[in-house]
Write a structure and sequence with these properties.
Belongs to the Nudix hydrolase family. NudC subfamily. By secondary structure, this protein is of the alpha+beta class. It has two domains: about 40 residues, no CATH class; about 120 residues, Nucleoside Triphosphate Pyrophosphohydrolase (Alpha-Beta Complex), CATH 3.90.79.10. It contains two helices and ten strands; from the N terminus they run E-E-E-E-E-E-H-E-E-E-E-H. The strands form two sheets. Strands 4, 5, 6, 7, 8, 9 and 10 form a seven-stranded mixed β-sheet that branches. About 25% of the residues are buried.
């Protein structure tokens, strides 16, 4: 999730709501300062990894519930998205991505992210990276999608291949 600014990082005045760029924003009331917190989304790449005819879904070590999703990672400064997704597949699964074909882009509002999703056929032996706890393999014809962000990318990829995937119910997230 994004940081929520309460005070101006330039002059320390309390930020106030103001319409900027067609949206409500937090902004410094001092016109000399002019700071506006734009709260732009963070770009994230995601991979529908196809390996030996199956889709690989992974569970992050930080997730407190047992849920499997696409391999994802932040787009680094000066990185090209299709190269970033191949890097993430190698880092997280130890697999060599052959190509990265764009599926689409999706908003993940809860985390304020823009998901840029790719299909990545991959080869090699799965070796989990430090961020993943486990993975599962799913035959495309049996895959189901979750109705948000990366799940919609999986749905769109499956539909483009002639499958009719059904949604799953998301597990209840623990409250903090």
């Amino acid at each position: 999730m994004t940081t929520i600014y309460r005070y101006c990082p330039r002059c320390a005045q309390a930020l106030q709501p103001r319409a900027e760029g067609g949206f409500p924003r937090q902004a410094c009331p001092d016109t000399q300062c002019g700071f506006v917190w734009w709260d732009n989304p963070t770009p994230v790449v995601a991979a529908v990894v196809e390996h030996d005819g199956e889709v690989i879904l992974a569970r992050n070590k930080l997730w407190t519930y047992r849920f499997f999703g696409l391999v994802t990672g932040f787009l680094e400064r000066n990185e090209i998205p299709h190269e970033a997704v191949l890097r993430e597949v190698e880092e997280e699964l130890g697999l060599k991505g052959d190509t990265a074909t764009l599926i689409g882009h999706y908003t993940f509002e809860r985390m304020n992210q823009l998901i840029i999703a790719y299909h990545v056929p991959a080869s090699g032996e799965v070796r989990l990276g430090e961020e993943l706890a486990e993975y599962i393999r799913v035959a495309p014809q049996q895959a189901r999608y979750w109705p948000a962000a990366t799940g919609l990318a999986l749905r769109d990829w499956l539909r483009a291949r002639g499958f009719d995937p059904q949604p799953i119910e998301m597990p209840a997230r623990p409250r903090s």
